[in-house]
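#structure-requests
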Amino acid sequence: MGRCKETLGYPSRTAAIAALRAQGDSCRQVADKLGVSLGTVAALANSYKRKIASQNRTVLFPARVIERLHDPARSRGLLPHELIRQIVETVAEDSLVDAILDDKAW
């Protein structure tokens, strides 16, 4: 692969495509603006989506929260950050946010 080529003021064609699509341009409009084929726009947009979806994210927790989870983590043979990950994954995968938070958001 070659170096990224600045396009329309963005650091790469992929960045330009992502930005233009986020602004509401259709794939056809983006292709016309960049002077590339519709297939190229679709391929780069899909590649970008896969890359973003596959990236792990880092979340910072206050030290006091981590300290309070030492004993529950230890009793499960885990480190606090492993327990936090399991809790958050379970809440997200089992749609438990509303059951846990009493904030009347629903």
